[in-house]
Amino acid sequence: MPNISRDEVAHLAKLARLAVTDDELDVFAGQLDQILDSVAKVSEVAAQDVPPTSHAVPLTNVFRDDVVQPCLTQQQALACAPAAEEGRFRVPRILGEEQ
Prior knowledge:
It is built from three helices and two strands, in the order H-H-H-E-E.
């Protein structure tokens, strides 16, 4: 049975750069202890014949071949734009950026 101490919680909090009070150390120690107990129980149940998985259902990437198709020319794409400049869409400046 895992048993995490207040000193270990304080050390973890320091590594994570968290300010933790003495009362919180006791609370977190108990909570972390419960978490470690739960993980230990799950580890006991896991059988050797069950392969480790990252997802509950199998995932398969579906790829398609890239096919070149006709598309708009630059002039056609910019024809309905509210504003264009030097062959590009012109958009309002954001966040006060300098040019």
